[in-house]
Amino acid sequence: MPNGVKYSTTTPSGSLRRGNVALGVNGNLGPTANTGFYSMPTPASGKYIINKVAASGVPNFFAPQNDTELIQFARNEGATGANTGSAAAVLSWIATQVNLEAANIQYESIVTDSLVLNLDAGFVGSYPTTASTWYDISGNGSTVTNQKGPGTSVAASWNSSGYWVMNNSVALNTNSSNGFGLNGYVPISGTKSFTFEAWVRLNSLTSQTSIINNAGSCPGYRWGLNGDGSMYWLIGPADGCTGYSEGGVGSGISTGVWLQLVGVFDKQNELGAGSKFYSYVNGSVTGDISISPNTDMYNGAPNIINGSCCRSMDGDLAIIRIYNKALTSTEITTNWNAQKSRFGL
Which of 104, 176, 315, 336 has its CA 20 to 30 A from that of 41? Predict the structure, then answer.
């Protein structure tokens, strides 16, 4: 299904958004007279569609056929020479413009309801192939920054196939400055349910490996994996370590292949089976465990693939998502089916 594009300062149902560019990926995207969405052309392999939106009318779509045309587009839009010396520089400049978005694919029809963070290294509108900033395309406007560990190179390098390669000599350290740092708090409630999703390919499994966490100690949350192939989780109250819980659940996390990992923290029994944590691997539930329904957890800004609590993930990372609800098994399977072919699955 072609993506729909329109100008919006809020995120329409069924859409992703960065700046004022709403990208419709599911639901009712037409007819245009009713929805305001216009069909985005499909980018040719290895090329881009540039979406330009304005509050006053129809989006413009540009399809540069080579780097020269891409650079010329940016200069026509008023970028200075310092911003247009290469195709990568142009893509980075476009990512800073609220009414422009570059696309290298028709984005898959993922679940967008209650999506509060969507970082996708394979979509040029989220990571523009260069520089240290990785842009959220959920509509909430977060960014993360690729960070360095003391005396090391950058902890992750971007692969042109659309994922981050973690620097293994750094990733296996426990230093909290390795990986990615979020620029602010993610809007999930301290008392409500939430879901974490990541697409990863692991080189190795180690004890208490972090994917997303904001807890150096007990207060807050951690999510990742254990050396035995189970999913690691922790949840703790905002006021200290009394009443926190952590552990491993499920199985099936393996090395050498792409995996969709999903952890559902159903604190409010949204799924109807009690307050539980659920682990999913490649669209299938692998286990569940009861958690406290009343934990008013600490909700400071999380880290991605780092944290002083744990070892950082050793492997490749393509996508990070956070939802401020408990995803159902149907919704998790929807995301799996929508994007598995991108990873050869």
Answer: 336
